[in-house]
Amino acid sequence: MPAVALVTGSGGLVGSEAVRQFAALGHEVIGLDNDLRRYFFGDEASTSGQIERLREEIRHYRHFDLDIRDWEAVKRVFSDYGRDIRVIVHAAAQPSHDWAAREPLTDFAVNATGTLHLLEAARQYCPQAVFIHCSTNKVYGDRPNALPLEERETRWELPEDHPYFRGIDESMSLDETRHSIFGASKVAADVMVQEYGRYFGMYTACFRGGCLTGPAHAGAQLHGFLSYLMKCALGGIPYTIFGYQGKQVRDNIDCEDLVRAFVSFYRKPRVAAVYNIGGGRKSHCSMLEAIRMCEEITGLPMHYAYSPQHRRGDHIWWISDLTRFKTDYPEWSLNRDIHDILTRIFLHNKERWFQARRPGTPGYQSLARQSAPICG
Q1: What element of type H or E holds 90?
Q2: Please, which of 28, 213, 244, 257 could form a disulfide with 248 given CB 3.0 to 4.6 Å?
Q3: Of 163, 209, 215, 192, which is closest to residue 349 (Cα–Cα)?
Q4: Using an 8 Å Cβ cutoff, are 111 and 103 in contact?
Q5: For residue 243, what are the contacts with CB-CB under 8 A and spacing of at least 6?
Q6: 142-175 residue pLDDT tens
Q7: Taking the CA atoms of the chain, what radius of gyration do you get in angstroms?
């Protein structure tokens, strides 16, 4: 039997990319995804379409409509495949600050308990497998907001002589800071992944991502910054900036670059590894800068408003220091920067998202000509 890659959240942005890349390596791929994203963010965020595409495109893909909160169901899949499972990519999560505060029990059960179920199933049935966990930079809480940031015309920025100017590394403390409910559940999962590595000698890695994105991202108002921003630009949908004068900075990594990092780790795994992973200094922007890039790429004016109330637990400035991962895996590098990422999102989605734009709004005719095969 060929090596098996098990991917949770297989219909999502990172999960679907992991399915494709590990299938390309010759693995049989098992996907676990019960479209909980539809429950979180509505029909437009559903993963059902992506799951159907994987079934059609990937020859050796088998899908399980399975909730990782269901221990017995998780255990059955792992017991069936056993030691044939060589790698687990855990990309299933409840990913929103705002949503987590609505249902803390659901958020914790998905993010923390679900992760524990997967770890324990791996320990019992395939302890040699590599366990790759999609963590988040939100495990650091709002500690980055205590950095001595300087306000500039379009962004907040660190002084160039600050130790974190090139990016925040893994030495930043997780303690005594506000995490948000979402951040706390992800901390629990992150620490447990490390502990299973150290305590049981398993090959585990926590990839603490910045903003993860790509053309197939089903962006929603509460999650998926760049995707939702481009959707608003194309559809003429009003966008709201929450706090910090719109100058908050994010680094962004394309899902293809991220999963290539997973593959590098899989080929040369370590015990209880932790990596900050994101766009770093190559791929980052502020909210205002992202809006201007969307206007430049689409040729359309954006409609946006400003709310002075920032989101609790939100970062004012985040850029990842990729030094640790690049040192351990020097063959890996980022292929795409922020402008490349936004352009890919635009080209992949322009016809579909433009259909929501009302005739007569600014820029309608110019984009209608670009999208003539579908919108004409």
Answers
A1: strand 85-90
A2: 244
A3: 215
A4: no
A5: 307, 308, 309, 310, 311, 314
A6: 999 999 999 999 999 999 999 999 999 999 999 9
A7: 20
51, two tokens: 């799951």
Amino acid identity, residue 71?
A: W
- 323-348 pLDDT tens trace: 999 999 999 999 999 999 999 999 98
Summarised one tens digit per residue, pLDDT across range 188-219 is: 999 999 999 999 999 999 999 989 998 877 66
Report the distance separating Cα 145 and Cα 240, nearest Å: 21
> Cβ atoms within 10 A of the Cβ of 70, count?
13
Average pLDDT (75-99) is: 96
Domain architecture of the chain: domains with CATH: 4-355 (3.40.50.720)
Nearest-angstrom CA–CA distance, 85 and 27: 10
- State the number of CA atoms in the 13 A half-sphere of 87 facing the CB: 30
Q: pLDDT by residue (tens digit) across 252-305?
A: 999 999 999 999 999 999 999 999 999 999 999 999 999 999 999 999 999 999
The amino acid at residue 18 is A
- Residue indicated by tokens 């080209």: 347
What residues are paired with 8 via a beta bridge?
A: 32, 90
How far is the C-alpha of 134 from the C-alpha of 115, rounded, in Å? Answer: 10
pTM score of the predicted model: 0.92
> Residue 213 is encoded by which pair of tokens?
């994105």
Q: List helix spans (H) across the chain.
A: 13-24, 36-41, 48-57, 71-81, 97-102, 104-108, 114-125, 180-200, 225-235, 255-267, 287-298, 323-328, 338-354, 364-370, 372-375
Name the pairing type of β-strands 239-242 and 304-307: parallel
Distance of CA 106 to the CA centre of its chain: 19
Residue 270, CB-side half-sphere exposure with 13 Å CA sphere: 15
